Amino acid sequence: MTTRPEPAAVRAAVVADAHGITRVHHTAWRETYTRLLPEGALDVLDEDAFATRWASIIDDDVTSVHVAERGGEIVGWCSASAGRDEDRPRDAELEGIYVLASEYGTGTGQALLDAAIADRPAYLWVADDNPRARAFYARNGFHPDGVNDVHHLLGHPLPAVRLVR
C-alpha cells in the first residue's frame, strides 16, 4: 500500500519569493502548454523580467499571492484578486494557480485554491483544452458560464473558457 504524500505547506508570498514563483511558472507552463503552443514558443521566457513582474504583483495591494513549499523549495503558487474583467461574474477571480507536475495528486493544488479563495463564489479562466485543470475545477464546483475567449500566451492564441462557482 502506497501512502499519498501530504500537500506542500502553503503561505502568503513575499517579494523574496519572486524567483521561485518564476521558476514554477516557467516549468508549469512547459508541463502544461507545450502541446497547445507552436514548437519553441516557450523558449522566449525571460526569467529576470518575470521575476521583476512577480515582485511587483506580490508587493501590490490588489493581488493576493500564495506559494506552496516542499523541502524549502517553492513547488506551486496561486494568485487571486477582485477580478480583472469588466463583466466579472463574481467578486473574486482566481487569476492563476500552478503546481509542478511532481505535485500532481498530493493535494497541493487544493491547498493553494483553499488559501486563495476558500469556498467563496469566484471565477477563473482556463485553457479550453486542459482536461486536468478543468476536472480539478469541476471537483471544486466551477462550471462554464458560456463565455469563451481567446487569450494570448507569449503572443500565441489560446482558446479559453470562463468557469464560475
Give a concise summary.
With 165 residues, the protein is an alpha+beta fold. It has four helices and seven strands; from the N terminus they run E-H-H-E-E-E-H-E-H-E-E.
For the structure shown, list the relevant keywords.
7 strands, three-stranded antiparallel beta sheet, GNAT family N-acetyltransferase, Aminopeptidase, 165 residues, four-stranded antiparallel beta sheet, alpha+beta
- In CATH terms, the superfamily of the domain at 9-119 is Gcn5-related N-acetyltransferase (GNAT)
Strand order of the largest sheet: 1-2-3-4
Structural class: alpha+beta
- Mass-distribution shape: globular
For the residues shown, what is the average pLDDT?
95
The main sheet comes to: 4 strands, antiparallel
Radius of gyration from the alpha-carbon trace, in angstroms: 15 Å
Report the CATH architecture of the domain at 9-119.
3-Layer(aba) Sandwich
Q: Strand content of the residues, in percent?
A: 25-35%
* CATH first level of the domain at 9-119: Alpha Beta
The first-to-last residue Cα distance is: 36 Å
Helix fraction, binned, reads 25-40%
What's the β-strand tally? Answer: 7
- What are the secondary-structure elements, in order, as H or E? EHHEEEHEHEE
CATH T-level fold name of the domain at 9-119: Aminopeptidase
Low-confidence stretches: none
Q: What is the count of DSSP helices, taking H or I runs of 4+ residues?
A: 4
Keywords: Acyltransferase, Transferase
Protein name: GNAT family N-acetyltransferase
InterPro entries: Acyl_CoA_acyltransferase, Bact_Acetyltransf, GNAT_dom
GO molecular function: acyltransferase activity, transferring groups other than amino-acyl groups
